[in-house]
Design a protein that fits this description.
This protein is α+β, with helices and mostly antiparallel strands and 189 residues long. The protein has 5 helices and 7 strands. The strands form 2 sheets. The chain has a 5-stranded mixed sheet with strand order 2-4-5-7-6. Strands 1-3 form a two-stranded antiparallel ribbon. Helix 3 runs antiparallel to helix 5. The termini are far apart. About 3% of the residues have low confidence. It binds adenosine-5'-triphosphate and magnesium ion (MG). The site of magnesium ion (MG) has 3 residues, from helix 3.
Length: 189
């Protein structure tokens, strides 16, 4: 419940344009490692392998708290939708004009019709989900379909972009992609 209230406050700040961001240059690898460490206990309980890879020396200009929230929302979703024995992988790399983060899971794919709706406030899919499992004890009370709306809001406040794609068969999963420009927030907001 506390988390849902916190999520609602975050969303209202995003929609009111009053989200306070303190952009600084951070080693992307450190932010990804911290996010993985935070999600690791849940991954273990659910028997999901959690891996990450970031090229050495990649810096990201971002609000650390905001980007950490983006990562943890994406990673927790990915773990939750991946069956036992599956893998979730986070990759960070430099691309032209900024950095790209991807979170790849084994969710079985998101139906085409749902692909854009996943970012809507309060939208929760009924398909493409594995049943609630261990490590998900907060779900019945706390899951509200807010996580990806917050991800989108924070990423766009950095003048970035988030999208989702299904993996090509035979892989059966999906990949959330976040792009953050290297001049995020410097162009005036
Ligand atoms: N990695 C994923 N794989 C497959 N489906 C996903 C994934 N992430 C999100 N979804 C789908 O998108 C919906 C919205 O995700 P979102 O994170 O916004 O909400 P939630 O996880 O249901 O709730 P909350 O994040 O508020 O606890 C989910 O209910 C699910 O149907
Ligand atoms: Mg979520």
């Amino acid at each position: 419940m506390t988390r849902m209230v916190d999520d609602l406050f975050e969303l209202s700040r995003i929609h009111a344009g009053t989200l306070e961001l303190s952009p600084q240059s951070w080693p992307l690898g450190d932010l990804v490692s911290e996010a993985i460490a935070g999600a690791d206990p849940v991954a273990r309980v659910r028997n999901v392998r959690l891996g990450g890879r970031v090229e050495d020396g990649v810096q990201v200009l971002a609000d650390a708290q905001g980007l950490s929230r983006v990562l943890s929302n994406l990673i927790m979703n990915a773990i939750r939708h991946t069956p036992s024995d599956g893998t979730v992988e986070i990759v960070g790399r430099q691309v032209s004009g900024g950095v790209e983060l991807s979170v790849t899971d084994a969710c079985g794919g998101i139906p085409e019709a749902d692909r854009e709706r996943v970012f809507d406030v309060a939208w929760r899919g009924v398909n493409a989900r594995t049943p609630d499992g261990p490590g998900d004890l907060d779900d019945r009370t706390a899951r509200a379909g807010l996580g990806l709306a917050i991800v989108k809001g924070i990423v766009e406040a950095h003048r970035g972009h988030v999208s989702v794609e299904n993996l090509d068969p035979p892989a059966a999963g999906c990949r959330f992609l976040v792009r953050l420009p290297s001049d995020a927030l410097l162009t005036g907001r």
